[in-house]
């Protein structure tokens, strides 16, 4: 859940951006996603389009605009820089989708995502926010979270505190059809120079390719990529 700043128009505009980030959409679908009245949703989307934060695709649907990329280019984030350097090699090795997640409160946010060039893939848009109640990335981030965060998330999670203890013991997590039907994933923690877990690196894809024990297949390569990220940090 996104935080409320108390500035109504700003929160609504950010809600429009996050909704469009899920996938391009027209006005009717934007209203359904945001819960905003038609006139409000159109006014905000049109205003964001003027500022090039949104643009239109060939079918007239709103999609994220070039101004976001231009702004992002000025962000000095060592984790993003490290992810951009390390994730392409992991994608090449696995042939699957790879992601980098950060925790924010009781949610996780995808900050880097790369897809394989062909075939069925698990597409996770950059910027998408997910609950930490399912998926291997959620297990990793929650396993190394503070006690209060764990207690807030675990009652609604598809795993238990015993699962988190196992993640801490072996250093990685896996999931099968937990976040999405037909999708499997394996994740490992990324640590800062002081050893604190600041992110989760993940490999995900169809169960038919990943198998029902994806950790047995990809954990070694994933942990090597995690170590490479930590060294770059």
From TrEMBL:
The keyword Transcription applies. GO terms for biological process: negative regulation of DNA-templated transcription. Pfam families: HTH_IclR, IclR_C. InterPro entries: GAF-like_dom_sf, HTH_MetabolicPath_Reg, Tscrpt_reg_IclR_C, Tscrpt_reg_IclR_N, WH-like_DNA-bd_sf, WH_DNA-bd_sf. SMART domains: HTH_ICLR. Keywords: DNA-binding, Transcription, Transcription regulation. The keyword Kinase does not apply. It comes from the Bacteria. GO terms for molecular function: DNA binding; DNA-binding transcription factor activity. This is IclR family transcriptional regulator.
